[in-house]
Write a structure and sequence with these properties.
Elements (H helix, E strand, L loop, with lengths): L12 E2 L2 E2 L7 E8 L7 E3 L5 E2 L2 E2 L4 E8 L4 E7 L6 H15 L6 E5 L5 E2 L14 H19 L2 E11 L5 E2 L1 E4 L16 E3 L8 E4 L6 E9 L4 E8 L11 E2 L2 H13 L10 E6 L5 E2 L14 H18 L10 E11 L5 H12 L10 H11 L6 E11 L2 E5 L3 E2 L1 H10 L5 E4 L8 E2 L2 H6 L15 H18 L1
Parallel strand pairs: 6-18, 8-9, 17-19, 23-25, 24-26
Antiparallel strand pairs: 1-2, 3-7, 3-11, 4-5, 4-10, 7-8, 11-16, 12-20, 13-14, 13-15, 16-17, 21-22, 22-23
Length: 475
């Protein structure tokens, strides 16, 4: 698969013809259905299972901005994650078919746990697109092209809100002697992911949360809502019924925003996109309380409604602009990949050797042993995509991983743009990105194969992204 290199052009060419609307800022949105067939394997847990029902459709959504000098696209997909091969191929085809530079396109996943896989074999050296991934590529390309077709004169603005009641750190320090054994046969982890809610063995959460919701909105010159891109640092909600397919609260947020903005049944269709922020260690469970029983989807709707209500209030405060500076940067960072030791490989072989003939790994110990044995096929080092955007006074940074909240908070504090937000799971799926300090605490998000990048990856990626954002100020 040929990857797209960094494309520095800031003008848009359509088949060699320069297209410019220097006096008019334009925006367009579109969405395309990516719901898989029933029977597709739903991922999100350790043991995939076939889908038996579609509760709500999955979508690829796109927002295109064009100020006459730079054109950029934001694509958000209702899947758990996407492989880099999907992003590279889709962006390359968009460039070929529309002229928009592939480096100016953001492709990310929302991280619903009720969708089929667009990740493929994460340990393969030469990943080939499977049928669903190829379908995803085609829908991404078509949706971006439709959003370009829908470009119209527009005004743009941004705002922030705070929704603290739905974000909780899911990594907890436990009382001494109460830590359970991890899949590697050790009880040396200092924190536990998703401990029993209300347990007397809980001590304190191991990290902060980020309650901020950032939003960028566009409307027509007559005031009709066109589209909205939001960002919130909540992993997902869950609580589906059985083996349902669902876009989780990300999809319900879109529905609720259409209602609140009176944007239903518009032509072109209004689209509200919710991107996943820095939620690698964050979920929707208050671990200090015993869980209450809820009907399927009830909690999901509550979260979507509360976030949409807060965004709607913030929307009323937006200062609208006829045009704004746009900037985009796409770079690579070369990092080491983690690999198992000879002792870890030997232990993994021993675990799997105990399985009956033709039996598949089922316990956590067996699943991680199977993953450990696949890891040596990965290279020692690899390049990973980083992307930044400037939209007026807004900064956006992306990571191809599940990012811890501390990383997003540091980027926001140090960024030259206010507000700045982070889009996780962009242009690939390479596991979790804990901080160096969190790596030392252990726990699920730091386990070998769950976290694939070197333990020093977070500070290196932060510094490169901050440099990319800072360079926008000098342009």
């Amino acid at each position: 698969m040929k990857r797209i290199g960094v494309i520095a052009a800031s003008i848009t060419m359509f088949f060699g013809v320069f297209v410019s609307s220097a006096d008019t800022f334009r925006a367009g949105v579109a969405k395309g259905n990516i719901t898989p067939n029933l029977g597709a394997m739903i991922i999100g847990g350790f043991r995939p299972y076939p889908a038996t029902h579609v509760h709500d459709d999955l979508w690829v959504k796109c927002l295109v901005l064009d100020n006459g000098q730079t054109r950029m696209a934001f694509v958000v997909c209702d899947v758990l994650g996407i492989s880099r091969a999907v992003s590279d191929e889709a962006r390359q085809r968009v460039q070929q078919e529309s002229g928009m530079p592939g480096a100016n396109i953001l492709v990310s996943a929302v991280h619903t746990h009720s969708a089929a896989s667009a990740i493929g074999n994460r340990f393969s050296l030469k990943p080939e697109l499977d049928d669903y991934q190829e379908f995803m590529v085609c829908r991404i390309v078509d949706t971006v092209r439709c959003a370009i077709n829908n470009l119209e004169p527009a005004r743009i603005g941004w705002a922030t809100a705070s929704v603290p009641q739905h974000v909780f750190c899911r990594r907890w320090f436990m009382k001494p002697g109460t830590m359970t054994m991890n899949p590697f046969g050790s009880t040396n982890d200092l924190v536990k992911m998703n401990p029993p809610p209300g347990s007397p063995n809980l001590e304190r959460p191991a990290g902060p949360t980020d309650p901020q919701v950032c939003l960028i909105a566009v409307k027509s010159l007559e005031g009709r809502p066109i589209g909205l891109l939001a960002n919130y640092s909540l992993h997902y909600v869950g609580g589906v019924r059985g083996a349902d397919i669902s876009a989780d609260y990300f999809g319900m947020f879109d529905d609720r925003m259409r209602q609140l903005l009176d944007a239903d049944h518009r032509t072109p269709q209004f689209v509200a996109m919710m991107s996943n922020g820095t939620s690698g260690n964050i979920n929707n469970i208050d671990f200090t309380k015993k869980p209450e029983k809820r009907e399927p989807y009830a909690r999901m709707r509550e979260v979507a409604d509360d976030v949409a209500q807060a965004v709607h209030v913030a929307y009323q405060t937006i200062q609208w602009h006829d045009s704004v500076p746009l900037g985009v940067s796409f770079e690579e960072i070369n990092l080491q990949l983690r690999h198992p030791s000879s002792e870890q490989l030997e232990r993994a072989r021993g675990v799997l050797a105990k399985l009956p003939p033709n039996a598949k790994p089922s316990s956590l110990e067996e699943i991680y042993a199977d993953r450990i044995l696949m890891m040596p096929a990965s290279p020692q080092r690899e390049s990973f995509p980083l992307q930044t955007f400037r939209i007026g006074e807004v900064g956006i940074a992306t990571f191809p991983v599940e990012v811890f909240s501390e990383i997003g908070l540091e980027l926001k504090a140090r960024s030259p743009f206010k507000p700045t937000f982070v889009v996780s799971l962009a242009h690939g799926y390479f596991g979790y990105l804990p901080t160096v300090e969190q790596h030392k605490l252990g726990g699920y998000e730091t386990w070998l194969s769950t976290s694939r990048l070197e333990t020093e990856a977070a500070p290196k990626m932060i510094e490169q992204l901050l440099g990319m954002l800072t360079r926008f100020k000098s342009e």
